[in-house]
């Protein structure tokens, strides 16, 4: 969730909550016993958090797939991130010359050949195309491509890929057809391809997956919400395997125009590649991106039985709400800090074990520092943690952001290298963390977390670690 500069979208006049945190909320965050260990005022004995040991409930990542501004290959994507390459450039998909922002992380040269048949490829909204391709590539990565799908029980395999905006091109074209030519010219695919659940549905139809299937739409927090929900389906024994993540394709006139109206976007048209600059004093808004990021998540027991390639372990996560304002972050950071704490509790991890954070960090004036302030509430020693911002290179991919950033987090774990946060020219002194400024760094990750926040006050945090049997 990031602040906008629109005078009509002002913070709530209500004073910040006092006394017990979230005292007015329906489900207040549980006070974490291990957080108290860092307090100088307590003498109580604190038991260490315990990670899940049951192989039926441990959740591992066995495949990753994406569609990005850097292409559809996970290794190429991460190599370009490590090189500090910017994927931001002028928008040429439509005439953007009259918009105050004329650039973004637009995908070019995308091909679904081999993944979607020709007729559907021409018909589908890009949001759905990105979802299907990323999902199938993730299965290939998990050794479940083609006939190998027969290895699993499809009744116990599900899909949970969300989107913040849905099929925006199909929706926009349908409205235009109605206005210009009347209702008879609206395509019969208008509703099916516009609604947010259709990505998960179409992917399941193609694969024959009959397990849990739906979408979550929590704006820019969508992907992490999907990972969290998918993992819980596995933990509860409702599924052996889930395809989870996010997809988005909103770089079209109505999408760009909507965010321009919110005054959320950078207007650095003279230098698009340096426009997304999280934690830099001269940041002036976020940069739109698009794509899809998907993980194959399964129980450790199921993965080991089929001899799956285990890439990393999902330890846990959490979701909550600021309950404060449509677009502005809470000044006290309570929503984000409590979400981080609850994710660590779910993961069985103490704050001292975390040494890497893939931050939400969108390059907005209020949002970047609000996140940093919340992180400082949970992690007292800023020297031991490195944080970086994937959005500095690919822009803000909205509902797909968390998916693409989870892949970056897992790749950081498996490679031992953190990608840089580029465009760090004039750093905010209040940040105090190592932001991996402008150049990649070698770093052995113990536990990494990935943050995603969305309009409406939606907060989400997920935790990953190297897999250890």
UniProtKB/TrEMBL annotation:
Subcellular location field: Plastid, Chloroplast
InterPro entries attached to this UniProt entry: 3-oxoacyl-ACP_synth-2 (IPR017568), Beta-ketoacyl_synthase (IPR000794), Ketoacyl_synth_AS (IPR018201), Ketoacyl_synth_C (IPR014031), Ketoacyl_synth_N (IPR014030), PKS_Beta-ketoAc_synthase_dom (IPR020841), Thiolase-like (IPR016039)
Main localization category: plastid
Region (Disordered): 1-29
Catalytic activity: a fatty acyl-[ACP] + malonyl-[ACP] + H(+) = a 3-oxoacyl-[ACP] + holo-[ACP] + CO2
Recorded superkingdom: Eukaryota
One GO MF term: 3-oxoacyl-[acyl-carrier-protein] synthase activity
Role played: Catalyzes the condensation reaction of fatty acid synthesis by the addition to an acyl acceptor of two carbons from malonyl-ACP.
Annotated Gene Ontology cellular component terms: chloroplast; mitochondrion
Subunit field text: Homodimer.
Family in the record: Belongs to the thiolase-like superfamily. Beta-ketoacyl-ACP synthases family.
Pfam families: ketoacyl-synt, Ketoacyl-synt_C
GO biological process: fatty acid biosynthetic process
EC identifiers of the protein: 2.3.1.41
Domain Ketosynthase family 3 (KS3) residues, every copy: 56-466
The name this protein goes by in its record: 3-oxoacyl-[acyl-carrier-protein] synthase I, chloroplastic
Alphabetical UniProt keywords: Acyltransferase, Chloroplast, Fatty acid biosynthesis, Fatty acid metabolism, Lipid biosynthesis, Lipid metabolism, Plastid, Transferase, Transit peptide
């Amino acid at each position: 969730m990031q602040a906008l500069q629109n005078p009509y979208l002002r913070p709530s006049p209500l004073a910040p909550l006092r006394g017990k945190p979230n005292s007015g909320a329906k489900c207040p965050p549980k006070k974490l016993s291990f957080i108290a260990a860092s307090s100088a005022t307590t003498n109580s004995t604190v038991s260490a958090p315990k990670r899940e040991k049951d192989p039926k409930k441990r959740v591992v990542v066995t495949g990753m797939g994406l569609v990005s501004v850097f292409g559809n290959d996970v290794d190429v994507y991460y190599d370009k991130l490590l090189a500090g390459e910017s994927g931001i450039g002028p928008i040429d998909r439509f005439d953007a010359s009259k918009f105050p922002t004329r650039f973004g992380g637009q995908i070019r040269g995308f091909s679904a050949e081999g993944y979607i048949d020709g007729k559907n490829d021409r018909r589908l909204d890009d949001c759905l195309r990105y979802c299907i391709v990323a999902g199938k590539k993730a299965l290939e990565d998990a050794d479940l491509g083609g006939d190998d799908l027969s290895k699993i029980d499809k009744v116990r395999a599900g899909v949970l890929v969300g989107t913040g905006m849905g099929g925006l091109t199909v929706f926009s074209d349908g409205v235009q057809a109605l206005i210009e030519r009347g209702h008879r010219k609206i395509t019969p695919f208008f509703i099916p391809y516009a609604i947010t659940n259709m990505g998960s549905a179409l992917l399941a139809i193609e694969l024959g997956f009959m397990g849990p299937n739906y979408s979550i739409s929590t704006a820019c927090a969508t992907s992490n919400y999907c990972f969290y929900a998918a993992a819980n389906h596995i933990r509860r024994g409702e599924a052996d395997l889930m395809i989870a993540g996010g997809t988005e394709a909103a770089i079209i006139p109505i999408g760009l125009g909507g965010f321009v109206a919110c005054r959320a976007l950078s207007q650095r048209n003279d230098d698009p590649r340096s426009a997304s600059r999280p934690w830099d004093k001269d940041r002036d808004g976020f940069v739109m991106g698009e794509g899809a990021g998907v993980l194959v998540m399964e129980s450790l027991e199921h993965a080991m039985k089929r001899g799956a390639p285990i890439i990393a372990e999902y330890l846990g996560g959490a979701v909550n709400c600021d309950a404060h304002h449509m677009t502005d972050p809470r000044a006290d950071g309570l929503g984000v800090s409590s979400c981080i704490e609850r994710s660590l509790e779910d993961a069985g991890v103490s704050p001292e074990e975390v040494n890497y954070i893939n931050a939400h960090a969108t390059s907005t004036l209020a949002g970047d520092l609000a996140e940093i302030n919340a992180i400082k509430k949970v992690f007292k020693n800023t020297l031991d943690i490195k944080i970086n911002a994937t959005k500095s290179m690919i822009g803000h991919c909205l509902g797909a952001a968390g998916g693409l950033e989870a892949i970056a987090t897992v790749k950081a774990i498996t490679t031992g290298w953190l990608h840089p946060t580029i465009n760090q020219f004039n750093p905010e002194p209040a940040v105090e963390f190592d932001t991996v400024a402008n150049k990649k760094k070698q770093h052995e990750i113990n536990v990494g977390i990935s943050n995603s926040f969305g309009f409406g006050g939606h907060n989400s945090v997920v935790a990953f670690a190297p897999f250890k049997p």
